[in-house]
Amino acid sequence: MKFTELGLAPEILRAIAEQGYETPTPIQAQAIPIVLAGKDLMGCAQTGTGKTAGFTLPILNRLAGGRPAGPRKIRTLILTPTRELAAQVEESVRTYGKHLSLKSLVMFGGVGMNPQISALKSGIDILVATPGRLLDHAQQRNVDLSGVEVLVLDEADRMLDMGFIHDIRRVLTLLPKQRQNLLFSATFSDEIRTLAAGIMSQPEYVEVARRNTASELVSQRVYKVDRERKKDLLIDLIKENNWHQVLVFTRTKWGANGLAEKLLKAGIEADAIHGNKSQNARTRALSGFKDGKLHVLVATDIAARGIDINELPYVVNFELPNVAEDYVHRIGRTGRAGSEGLAVSLVCIDEHKLLRDIERLIKREIEEVVYPGYEPDPSIRAEPILMRSAGARGGQRGGGAGRGPGGGAPRTGGAPSGNRSGGGKPGGGSHRSGSRHR
Ligand code: AMP
């Protein structure tokens, strides 16, 4: 199938062609006709599948058909869980709508309200917002949502994880009852179904394969290493293999900061992004990373959610996520759109149970490797994993994995494969971090 067969306006097809896209991705091929038909849609798709264009293109098409008489009102509201995702979605709206005379605005917290107020006053067709800031504006009566024809809840599962359900429900009360609803989520939990049942009428379902099952392009590898030596191993891996664009995941904000500092001291251009950083600092780090000025971006799961970087070559799990599904999200950052990627996990003895959970979820064993010079010390015992800054969602899905005395104790007697790869140079054994932090 080609984009030209979908019945989109010529201005939109032109913008798509300028992006170099010819063929719709599976989610686009399925979702676009449904949205064009004005139906409600539940889409099960993760970032990286092309879902953003899947809803943006048909919405633009609808709005391009002309607007109702009277003052310009917001006709499409797109809610996202994070600032980064909001910014990226609005960028897509601009990209695909560049030959149309529609106005869009992105609105999130952490930046001044006044520029957003002025932009709202100037008349907006498509608003992309995080729920909290939208409600701030609604309370101050800066925003009129009475003309909304299409509502999109993007990454609805993450919005629920982050505790936005009440905010979403409050936003819903501000919208006209008669509207088109589109909901995208990586998973369809009971919670998501309940939310959807309350807002959608006879929705169509579309689903694309989860990245872990779909993507054979991501090579996955586990390096067994002692917790105190992870930082040094990461530095060696980056330097010796000349990795240039590496997204590194840590479990906590303080862990992200500490690691970025350590990498910088080792002469590697690195920065951290997480919820405690100002919006400006986050935007700067992200664009530096996209431009290739920053070689390493250290992120927590929430901060990284929705980051859209084409063809990211390396993802490192400096610590395994507490929730196995997050592993799938993390490695979904690499191996996109036809390019190969490598997902490396540094796994210490505390994390063996988490590793087994992940392998059960993805239904395969991940190749285990010991980097020469970093052989784990067999006398080191497992310790419980602390989630010091797990944040709002920590208590909801963490489910106690790895917590409590012995919670992270290995279940297996040893590495299932225990093979050594030729993936690194020997002789890294003299590095010791001396750090007592994980
Ligand atoms: P998304 O899942 O919406 O975050 O999109 C993932 C990436 O795929 C983005 O970088 C898009 O620019 C890119 N993309 C979207 N649609 C297509 C397409 N039809 N062909 C190739 N790449 C695409």
Could you give a quick summary of the protein structure above?
The protein is 36% helix and 14% strand. With 438 residues, it is α/β, with parallel strands linked by helices. It folds into 2 domains: 3-207, 3-Layer(aba) Sandwich (Rossmann fold), CATH 3.40.50.300; 218-401, P-loop containing nucleotide triphosphate hydrolases (Rossmann fold, 3-Layer(aba) Sandwich), CATH 3.40.50.
CATH architectural group of the largest domain? 3-Layer(aba) Sandwich
Low-confidence stretches: 388-438
Helix content: 25-40%
Large-scale geometry: elongated
Q: With helices defined by DSSP (H or I, 4 residues minimum), what is the helix count?
A: 17
The name of the CATH superfamily of the largest domain reads P-loop containing nucleotide triphosphate hydrolases
Q: What is the highest CATH level, the class of the largest domain?
A: Alpha Beta
Structural class: alpha/beta
| Total number of strands | 14
Distinct small molecules? adenosine monophosphate
Report the biggest beta sheet as strand number plus sense, adding barrel if it closes: 7 strands, parallel
Strands side by side in the biggest sheet: 3-4-2-5-6-1-7
**Rg from C-alpha positions?**
23 Å
Average pLDDT level: 83
Whole-number tally of structural domains: 2
- CATH overall fold name of the largest domain: Rossmann fold
Q: End-to-end distance, in Å?
A: 49 Å
